[in-house]
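INFO batch 0412 | record 1 of 1 | parsing
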Amino acid sequence: MKRITTIILFFIILTSSTCQKEVKHYDLTVKNTANASIYVTWTDAYPDTLIRCPLGYSEILPGKSYDIKSGKYGWENDFKGMQFLQIFIIDAITGSTEACDTIRLHNMILKRYTLTYENLQQINWKITYP
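INFO prediction complete | emitting tokens
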């Protein structure tokens, strides 16, 4: 009888404890509401506020979105090793015709976002350009 009581008590303790599953974010969405295509690129380098070359670009057509993917454990884990995520928006024509060094040298960036983990939570992991 004592053993059954112990088992029942143990079961009650196990089932009554609440474990909240941590929500993880794997995508950061950038939406282009401009009338022209843009290129987006990103880095975790900070305070370097300029694009480091070579760095790939992803094109976003007008009215479309692009998801920046995190590592396999989510942005929450990625931010354990960085303070800021920087996102650069570049005109698609400039990005396709100019070398990365030229874009950097002449600061041909349309918009730069410097975001903390808290900033991304506040904007619900969505950036709208412009």
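INFO post-check: The chain is about 30% helix and 30% strand.
INFO record closed
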